[in-house]
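Input for the complex:
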Amino acid sequence: MPDARGRIYLDYHATTPVDPRVAAVVMRYMVEAFGNPNSVDHSFGDEADEAVHRASEDVGSLVGAPASYVVFTSGATESINLAIQGFARGALKGRRIRIALSPTEHSAVLETCRSLARDGHAELHFLHVDEAGRVSLEEIESICRAGIDLLCVMAANNEVGTVAPVSEIACIASKFGTAYLCDATQAVGRISIDMARDGITFLALSAHKIHGPKGVGALVTPARRLLSPLIYGGEQQRHLRAGTLNVAGIAGLGEACRLRSEELSVDEPAIAARRDRLHQLLREAVPELVLNGDPLNRLAGNLHVSFPNCPNGAVIARVRDHLAVATGAACSSGIEAPSHVLRAMGLPDSVLHGAIRIGIGKWTTDEEIELAADILSNAWRDVSSRVKRARS
Ligand code: PLP
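Predicted:
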């Protein structure tokens, strides 16, 4: 159902509403069980410490890892920075680190790597992706064989939703002794991930993409010893990330993960069915609609389409009061340049400029899908008839 202001939210890749069950846990650890987990002298501290431990177990179990692998952070951006910068400073002891990365990575990965390269600490090797945003396993194998210290390939893309073959990538990386950073921010809680089976070295995740609060996430790793901390201070998290733990946020992240473990297998097929219905309605209304990304391996909630020769900014301007969809990633929308992801996929300009990202989630209803299709196709009709008039 649209909200009290009549708006429909279809931007679940940017963020998700906090599950009221998660909010109740966060509230409890803010107001009642508010102790500092490092206060060893009383039971307020014990209670908070137990909450952190339980959250480590819930986060770990969602991604197939023991609780001891979990380092809590302020979100995926920090997790990614800790993995890349921490690895560069820790394992390689000042040597120039060789990083292979996909050009479709999130800016948290791209900009961290670029900053290391600018300062002379890293040498970057960009992989290729095809028109669906897929990396090539052959290319990954040959670049790892040539000698790469760190490989960065995200589990699922935050724009086009393309899901990477994470197990195969991890297997290649471990064959050549390459550390593998998997940014799984969009994938965790949506597809099954098993770190123990796959042998991923570093996995980044964030609570706000899975109905948890903003400002909390984790880096999950069996290889803490390879990392130098980025934040110094107290002894928290075994010296890897100093600072009093955000217990309420961490408890919320844990609860969000626990709920995803229980509900993923029921939610995701239902979300995919709504996504497919919306796609069908849009295709019927807009015959030249283009589907971007990998039609076979993509997130259930992702529908990334282009209205060719119909500027996306004009469509968004018409729908924005009623419908939340995006021209690109939340951290770059508002920037006029076309998305680096679509550029890397080599899409033609007409497709690039007409691209709209739609993210469907757990609470999207059938009614919202029908309404969203109407809102978008009316906007398209209006914009495209103006474009045609202007050209004739
Ligand atoms: N990586 C991906 C794939 C994302 O989609 C995002 C958020 O948009 C991030 C990293 C950054 O996450 P956070 O907002 O927790 O810093």
